[in-house]
Write a structure and sequence with these properties.
Layout (H helix, E strand, L loop, with lengths): L1 E3 L4 H5 L11 H9 L13 E3 L8 H8 L7 E3 L23 E3 L4 H9 L5 H14 L4 H10 L10 E3 L2 H10 L7 E10 L2 E7 L9 H5 L2 H12 L4 E5 L2 E13 L3 E12 L5 E6 L2 H9 L4 H18 L5 E11 L6 E10 L4 H13 L14 E7 L3 H14 L3 E2 L5 E3 L1 E3 L9 E6 L1
Parallel strand pairs: 1-2, 1-4, 2-3
Antiparallel strand pairs: 5-8, 6-7, 6-8, 9-10, 9-12, 10-11, 11-14, 12-13, 14-18, 15-16, 17-18
Length: 429
């Protein structure tokens, strides 16, 4: 398996079939700085495709720290070019190339072709990936989950095509939108392409259109809908916790559960960090908030749904959920389909980090409260600022190991920190 980190995939999909999309500078910087993040997804015999080799000593240090881990190799695009007989030259003597990017899009296909790679099987599956990942399809997912009798399912997503429809929804569903609303472009992720509209006082339902639909927001909606874009509209909630269910799909109507993800986001919806813990410990924590039967019910429902509706889809799927407090009763309940990501996610990276790097086979699993590791992805306004944070963490949180070589506490950068780095991924305890 060859992994590739391209965090601009949702943004590229907004361009339709165009293969010439160029991401904003900040996203390109993230792709550059975190290019080696998939190291922690794969294993021995796999590879991570990068456009620039990491600094000398970074990989050597990881291999020295964790000789038992079996990290993937690192490949440059020129190593994928066809040989004289027209066949690809995969690493380690493999006869075929199989890619797992952060997400498929026409721009990536064009780039792979430029590098001499042909992957027709992935291209054939791409339309299904696009369909599953299109956030406007969440409205249909709401209806499907309700039809299947999922207790926590209800109509939460609405597709709007003009400003008037927003006004109508705010008046018709005033109770549902008591905390405000969120607008999402068709392909969006981690807060990009989102507009947050907080209500202030939930009692001011009748003033919603005038209070929240500012001239600037009306223009934002109009520009997109006049281009033919559909926008997903959903209520804001009194959120208590973010979680996700992770799945793996293989052709032939097979779906399997890969684990839980308990994570944090910023106020704008951007990813911030994951708790690194066993599935048992995560469930133990969630059980203190809601009935764990609701989570199990959602898991089984999605397993059946994915197998039935996407029998030819192959790859990884993360379904983001939320535990929130109901406005009227104050009861904590589950929102089962905040977002569907048909690709690797930060939650999957966190799951793999815990299972492969931190979970000790020499100690029994503990469900109770205990000091925990966090997986963090963050950016800085400048490379100098990030360098200072990195130096401080190295000094204040030296990495310590148990007798078997597994980290027990400290700070570990998962990607290289260089003089021009502005994004970093790390674990800390």
């Amino acid at each position: 398996m060859i992994y590739l980190f391209n965090p601009d995939t949702e943004m590229a999909l907004r361009e339709g079939e165009s293969s010439f999309y160029i991401a904003p500078a900040a996203v390109r910087q993230m792709a550059h700085d975190l290019a080696l993040l998939p190291l922690w997804l794969g294993g021995e015999g796999d590879a991570v495709l990068v456009e620039e080799l990491p600094p000398s000593g970074f990989l050597e240090q990881l291999h020295a720290l964790f000789p038992w881990l079996g990290l993937p190799a690192v490949l440059l695009p020129q190593q994928l070019r066809p040989s004289v007989d027209g066949t690809s030259c995969p690493p380690s003597g493999h006869s075929t190339l199989s890619f797992t990017p952060w997400g498929w899009n026409p721009t990536l296909f064009a780039k792979l072709r430029h590098w001499g790679v042909n992957c027709p099987e992935e291209e054939a599956a791409a339309p299904l990936r696009y369909a599953l990942g299109n956030k406007t399809n969440l409205q249909q997912l709401d209806r499907e989950l309700m039809a299947r009798g999922l207790r926590s399912a209800q109509q939460r997503h609405f597709t709007i095509h003009n400003v008037s429809e927003v006004e109508e929804l705010l008046l018709r569903e005033a109770r549902l939108f008591s905390h405000g609303f969120l607008l999402k472009e068709g392909y969006s992720s981690s807060g990009r392409g989102h507009r947050w509209c907080h209500s202030g006082s939930p009692s001011q339902h009748a003033a919603y259109p005038q209070q929240l639909l500012t001239a600037e927001l009306r223009q934002w909606i109009t520009r997109r809908t006049e281009r033919g874009e559909a926008i997903d509209m959903e209520p804001l909630y009194d959120k208590v916790a973010d979680l996700a269910l992770l799945f793996h799909l293989s052709p032939g109507c097979r779906a399997s559960f890969s684990g839980y993800s308990l994570f944090e986001t910023t106020a704008e919806g951007a990813y911030r960090s994951n708790l690194l813990a066993s599935d048992e410990a995560i469930l133990h924590h969630l059980a203190s908030l809601i009935d764990p039967a609701l989570i199990e019910e959602a898991k089984q429902t999605f397993l059946h749904l994915l197998e039935e509706q996407y029998p030819t889809l192959s790859g990884l799927v993360g379904i983001d959920m939320m535990i929130y407090r109901e406005a009227d009763s104050g009861t904590l309940t589950l929102h089962p389909d905040v977002e569907v990501n048909p690709r690797p996610t930060m939650g999957l990276v966190a799951r793999r980090l815990y299972d492969r790097l931190l979970a000790s086979p020499h100690a029994p699993s503990c469900e109770g409260p205990q000091p925990t590791w966090r997986f963090v992805v963050e950016g800085s306004a400048s490379s100098a600022q990030l360098q200072q944070r990195h130096a401080t963490d190295l000094q204040q949180h030296p990495l310590r190991h148990d007798p078997h070589g597994r980290p027990t506490s400290g700070y570990l950068p998962l990607t290289p920190i260089q003089s021009d780095t502005r994004f970093r991924a790390y674990i800390i305890r």
